[in-house]
Amino acid sequence: xxxxxxxxxxxxxxxxxxxxxxxxxxxxxxxxxxxxxxxxxxxxxxxxxxxxxxxxxxxxxxxxxxxxxxxxxxxxxxxxxxxxxxxxxxxxxxxxxxxxxxxxxxxxxxxxxxxx
Amino acid sequence: xxxxxxxxxxxxxxxxxxxxxxxxxxxxxxxxxxxxxxxxxxxxxxxxxxxxxxxxxxxxxxxxxxxxxxxxxxxxxxxxxxxxxxxxxxxxxxxxxxxxxxxxxxxxxxxxxxxxxxxxxxxxxxxxxxxxxxxxxxxxxxxxxxxxxxxx
Lengths: 116, 152
Fold this sequence. Notes:
The complex is a heterodimer.
Chain A: E1 2-6, E2 10-19, H1 21-38, E3 42-53, H2 55-69, E4 74-78, H3 82-91, E5 98-100
Helix pairs in contact in A: 1-2
Chain B: E1 5-12, H1 16-29, H2 36-57, E2 65-73, E3 77-84, H3 92-96, H4 112-119, E4 122-128, E5 132-140, H5 144-151
Antiparallel strand pairs in B: 1-2, 2-3, 3-5, 4-5
Helix pairs in contact in B: 1-2, 2-4
């Protein structure tokens, strides 16, 4: 569902499965719990294991962008699939966050190791 | 209108069923051998329509019934109809305005109709307050010649 990795300067949320209205609430609560407590300068939402996202995911991104901008934090979106990129582009959410692609979505990528 | 194949399914307006509904429509449309992107577009558009019925049509009342009809029409057209008997939409134009949401507190992006419009070829919304809403979408899938022409 969501796995959080806390480092000194950043929080990474590894999301997985299908990101729809049914699923976003628990992700929002888990991420906001840490964000509000620690105010990490960088928050990364990693989508490599997300197989589907609709506009509910856009709501999640818009909301986190608002929470972070209140204290000057930066939001990053990592490894979105082509379907997710299309939804991000259409919604303009790609302007609210830095989008990066590291993983090939099937294998590992060096910077973050999902298993840890 | 000639219908080549049809599926009709009703289910309660529970948020767990959003995933089921979009998967069901795509599984049925797979008979036409759509591209990965066409299937992703259809899946996303259906997800938005069903989520609207759950969140806005029935406002979380889980005993409301959503009926999804999928028809495969000639010329590789997929027709999807999503109907609810919920509260209806008073101002359809306002509801369809990008970024407008009647439920901003729930962090709805207000992009459901925008996604439906962008990811299908035609979208129609019929609604009456107190009676419910019917969304119909059509998407024409490319044939093999168009796909290979697009690639070259």
